[in-house]
Model the fold of this input.
Amino acid sequence: MKLSLSYKGKLLLNFALLFLLFAVVLVLFQRHREREYRRELLEARLLSYADLVANSVENQGIEKDSLQFAHIVHILPSELRLTVITKQGRVCYESDNIEPGQMDDHTNRPEVRAALAHTSGSDVRHSNTTDITYFYYAKSYGGFIVRVALPYDDSVQDFMKADNVYLWFVLLVFSVTLVVLIRVSDHFGKAIAGLRRFINSAERGLVDYDHITFPHSELGDISRSIMLKYKQLELTGRQIAAERERLMRHFHYFEEGIAIFSPDRKKIYANPRFMQYVNTILDRPTADVNTIWEHKVFAPAAEFLDLNGGQRSYTVDAPIFRFTLSSGSTYFAIQLLIYSDGSFEMSLADVTRAEKNKVLKQQMSNNITHELRTPVSSIRGYIETILECPTLAQDRKRYFLEKAHLQVVRLTDLIRDVALITKTEEAPEMMPREALDIHHIVDDIIEELRTGLTDARMTVTNAVPEGTSINGNYSLVYSVFRNLMENSIRYAGPDTKVKVDCYNQDDEYCYFRYYDTGEGVPQEHLSRLFERFYRVTEGRTRDCGGTGLGLSIVRNAVLFHSGTISVRNRKGGGLEFIFTLKK
Done:
């Protein structure tokens, strides 16, 4: 059976084991240091004997007889063994009455090797000569080595042992520490036990916030804070669940089809309208929305997801894609929006009516273009009159020619403008794009319209910063600024000022402002200025030489560049256009 300890028991056990390990290491280190200290004391004692012998040898010479060495030994402790050795390892004297000639080379003895290498050395070992275990100490002096040794008997061994006072002290400290650990673990255990009860009740979803208490400690304060945050999260979760239910109800009865997919393109949710539209689009009805990715009609959506599905957008401008497809006589607008977690939303909207209106407008533009060609017959009449009446006065001929020329210029401009609008609506993909410097384009337009500006006594300020550029269609961008400036020349009035500037830029758009200080337009007409052939007053366009399509072209050109445009009367007088062009 597996033993399960409480947090208090685990904390106490871990602290106790850690302290015990620390205490054992400390005791072992201290005992080792004490033994080393006692060894050093014994070596110091033997060193004094060695120095005494060395002084005698240095004064009288190493080749003295045994009686003289015996005199030195007589003043040493009786249990002390003395040996004098040359640097070559030959024994000159041995206090145990052993003839030096009977002893072998001593350079291989550990204490002698240490003395030769480091001046002094010691060792505990058994002597084969005397059959006794000694504590040897040897020191090198000039040309000889003095070795002294004490029998390693019980008295020496007891001296070398470390005492147990420090051990008992550590055990006492360990006992006191253990009592303190018990109190500390009990203090922590209450907070942990309360936190465990809270977690167990939270897992069951039955948290009794009023009866779960924590001690007044730092850990208790942290536990209370965790419980409070959980309570707030629980409340937020219920609110989110309620919002989700409302959102699902909204999706269910939404007029458009909407579906949400996971990052791997599996359906998370689809409302009934989405299912209806999908089955209208596909050749064969299906109950599995995930099969739409196998059909060619949804290939643009799949391609967009392949290009952008790996992105994670944490800004407002999330990856979005729109396109239109048809199924018989029905048109659907499809929009994909990728969320920050990689999942995405697809919406389907029936835009049949809007598409048909678009077709009607295009047909109307073509019809207008066709109908406006009929004034050519008037031009023909002027010319034929001149040709058939050779006696016609020169001033009359010139009058007819000027009338014909004016009609030709006006019709040419009109045909050009209508064709441009039609192209932007019907085949925007055919319009080429290139890098455009807006500042230079505005300068070119000012230069081309210099005569008209001079005649109207107008001053133009190009405040667009140099280097302001977009990737767009030159003809359309050129027509935006030219039509706005021509509009000012025709209607703003003399002695007015015109200013063009780019007041802001970001990663996607350039933000432009164009205004004049002229007469402006009555408020009730502002909302219709971008309509084709709309006139503020009857005959205004005709009298001023315009085609009536200039501002409509401006709007279409801005829309072509994924921008927006608005118009208003300035407080200081004149019209002000605010528009954006996507970079």
Observations:
- Confidence is low (pLDDT under 50) at residues 539-543.
- The radius of gyration is 54 Å.
